[in-house]
Amino acid sequence: MLRRGERLTMMAVPALNVPQSNVATQSACTHPFQVPQQCRSAWELTTSDSSPSLSAQGAATPKPAVSNTTNAAASAGCYRSHRYTHNPYASTAPRSDNDGADPVCVSGSGDGNCEAPRHVYNSAVLDSGNLSNGLVERFRAIVGELPRAACTSAGRNLLVSVLRLHHVEMTRTVVDEFRPVLPAVALDSNGCHVVRALVEFIPTGLMATLVPHFTPSLVRDLAVSSPYTRRVLQSVFERHKSDALTPIVEAIAQDSQLLAQRQQGCITIIRTIENTLPHQQRFIISRLLPALPALTMNCYGNYVVQCVLHHMDPEAVTVVVCHAFAGHWVALSCNKFASNVVEKVVRVLEGPARRALIAETVCDPVNLRRLMNDCFGNFVLQAIIDSSTSEVDFRTISQCIRPLLPTSSHGRRIESKLQCVMARAGAVGE
C-alpha cells in the first residue's frame, strides 16, 4: 500500500506533463512539505503540523516536533487581527488588544511570563479642555457686542456653547448685556435660542432680575410669534417656580382669551397652567372662565378648556360647567371641537347636574334624535351611556334610546354601547 506522501507525488506527475522516464528524478527533487510562514486559517495550521515530511527518496519520515505554544500564539494573533469587514456596523478604527483585556502572555516557551497591558490615553479629554479654552477666548473677543452677536448664526452657536459651560462670570456678563435690549434679542430668529438657553441655565435669583424686562407686549409677542419664541416662555416656567414670575403670569392672563385661540398661544397657556404655582394657576383660570363656552367651540381653545377642567376640582367643574353650558349641551355636542370637551365633562358630572344633562339631551326626543344622527353627537351620547352608574339612570336612558335605534345612522354603535354596559352591570352583579 502506498503511503500518503507517495500517492500525492505520483498524482502530481501527470498534471505537470512530465515523461515517465523522469519520474524518479522528479521524485528525488520533490520538496518536502513545510509549515506555512503566514497563518491563513486554523485548518492549515492543523493539517500542516500533522502532515509527515518526505525525504529525498520519497519516503515519509517523522517531522521534528514543533512547539504547540508557538503555533497557538500565532493562531491567537491571527484571530485577534481578523476583522469582519462584511458587518456594516463594525467600527473602522484599529482594534487594540490591550483595551480592557487581561495581560497577554508573549513568551513562546510557556513559562507563564506575562506583560501588563499598556495604558492607552484618550486625547478626547485634552481636546475638550482646549475647546473650552477656545470658547472662552472667542467669548472675550465679543464682550460688549453680545446682543448683536446673538442675532447671528455663528454668535448664537458660540453663546449657547458658552452658557453650557455654566461659568458664573460669563453667564452674568451675558445677562447684563441682554437686559437692556431683551425684546430685540428674544424676538430674533437666532437670538431667541440664546435667550432660551440663558433662561434654562441661570439660577432663579438671577432670573428674577430679568422679569421686569418681560413687558406685556413682549410676552404676547413671544407667545404667538413662532414655536421658538414660545419655548422661551415655556422654559421660564418649566425651569423656575417662584413668586417673582407673577408679573409674567399676569401678562399671560391679561390676554389669555385671545392667546387661547391661537396655535402657539394655546400651548403657552397650557404649559403655563401646568408649571406655575397654585395661586398663579388659579389666577389664569379665573380669567378664562367667562369665555369658556366660546373657547370650547374653537379649534385651539378647546384644548385650553380641557386643560382648565383637568386642573379644577370636580365640584368646581360642576358649578362652572352647569352655569356656562346649560341650554347649549346639544349644540356643543354636535360641534367638532366642543364635543371633545363635552365627552370629558359628562364623565365627571354627578347628582343634580347629571340629571339636568340627561333631561336636556336624552329625554327630549328632538334633541336625542339630533344627537343620534350626528357624527360627533353620537360619541357624546355613548359617553353618557358609558358613564351611567345607577340602574335607574341606565334604564331611563335605554328606554328613550331603543325606539329610535332603527332610524339612527349610528344606531349600531349606540346599541353596542348599551349591550356593553348591560354586560358590565351583569358581571358586577354576579
UniProtKB/TrEMBL annotation:
Region described as Disordered: spans on this chain: 46-68
Domain named PUM-HD: residues: 80-426
GO process terms (BP): post-transcriptional regulation of gene expression; regulation of mRNA stability; regulation of translation
GO cellular component, one term: cytoplasm
UniProt keyword annotation of Repeat present: yes
Residue ranges of coiled coil: none
Descriptive protein name: Pumilio/PUF RNA binding protein 5, putative
Gene field: Tb07.26A24.410
